[in-house]
Amino acid sequence: QVQLVESGGGLVQAGGSLRLSCAASGRTSSSYAIGWFRQAPGKEREFVAGINQSGGNTGYADSVKGRFTISRDNAKGTVYLQMNSLKPEDTAVYYCAADTFYGRVVAGRSGYWGQGTQVTVST
Questions:
Q1: What's the farthest any 2 CA atoms get from each other in the chain?
Q2: Tens digits of per-residue pLDDT, 37-74?
Q3: How much is the pLDDT for 111?
Q4: How many CA atoms lie within 13 A of 77 on its CB side?
Q5: Measured torsion, CA atoms of residues 49, 20, 3, 41, in degrees rounded to the nearest 10
């Protein structure tokens, strides 16, 4: 079992940057693939980025490619989402999710979810 806690959200102007963190607690947190998702008001939750257990495989939504970077530090049990060149349409609650299978993470069918952190990008 793993517990996930997101942090790093906030208010930023368009063009700015934020780095989100997902702290995964539990004895075997490095055994989980991690994904970032977001949900804007009135919209469905969408996949943003994912990373496998070793960090050697990553994936991104087309809308964030070239702007966002996902990484992990297994020694710290933390996954990061570096968000650059932020746009107002990036405004959403961002969630991290974990599962032992990377494919389930990407598909949004993870077994574990965090509580979310709000990201607001102003014009």
A1: 42
A2: 999 999 999 999 999 999 999 999 999 999 999 999 99
A3: 87
A4: 12
A5: -70
> Is 15 strand, coil or helix?
coil
Query: What amino acid occupies position 27?
Result: R
Q: 């989402």: which residue's tokens?
A: 81
- Could you give the C-alpha distances from 36 to 28, 61, 82, in angstroms and in order? 19, 10, 11
- In angstroms, the CA 56 to CA 101 distance is 14
Predicted confidence at residue 30, as pLDDT, reads: 87
- Are 20 and 6 a contacting pair, CB within 8 Å? yes
Tokens of 86: 């932020």
92 in Cβ contact with 39 (< 8 Å): yes
What are the angstrom distances between the C-alpha of 115 and each of 37, 53, 96?
11, 21, 8
